[in-house]
Amino acid sequence: MNNTAANTKQSGAALVVSLFILLVMTLIGVSSMQTTTMEEKMASNTREHQQAFEAAESALRAAEAHIEDDVTVTAGFDTTGSDGHYDNSVQELWRTLGWDNTDSLADSSYTSTYGSAPAPRYIIEHYGSATTAIDKFNLGGYGTGAGGGDVELFRITARGTGANNQSPVFIQTYYGKIL
């Protein structure tokens, strides 16, 4: 039979080509898995940042409500800030602050829908009074119907974190109120 003679002439080229194709497919699969893993991490970080931003916005609104409802005098604003109220003697205080229970105020109305995220926190710094028309230039509308008086300026710094508490977001704004 001639089958034996035909088999001895085969050099295994199909095996080599098949192994090469398998190697290329394996490399494509590993590369795809690495890309997918990186995209998952990016999506997770984006979600975490968005959660932290929403929490900080909530704390910012709580601070504005706190100023509007509870701040009637500025005598309690000092350098210790044990109640979350500070004067403006320390520049960029929010960078060095511990953001624990004694240094800042918590937004007690905040409820996270993303797991066990801690309540966002905020501090309020009293910046002084806007006494002249030039100082009040960017504060149009404040004092309408409230009578005369100087506008007291406050800087609010809010800090929020996402569900894993590892990506803080800080938001700052200025707020004016006639006391």
Structure description:
The mean pLDDT is 82. The longest helix is centred in the N-terminal third of the chain and has 58 residues, at 13-70. The protein is rod-shaped. Strands 1, 2, 3, 4 and 5 form a five-stranded mixed sheet that branches. It is an alpha+beta fold. A hairpin with an 8-residue loop joins strand 4 (151-160) and strand 5 (169-178). It starts with a helix and ends with a strand. It has three helices and five strands. The chain has one domain (13-178). The chain has helices spanning 3-8, 13-70, 93-96; strands at 85-87, 105-106, 121-130, 151-160, 169-178. Helix content is 38%, strand content 20%.
Helix tally equals 3
Number of strand elements: 5
Globally, the shape reads: rod-shaped
Structural class: alpha+beta
Measured between the Cα atoms of the first and last residue, the distance is 111 Å
Low-confidence stretches: none
Order of helices and strands: HHEHEEEE
- Sheet bearing the most strands, described? 5 strands, mixed
How many structural domains can be distinguished in the coordinates? 1
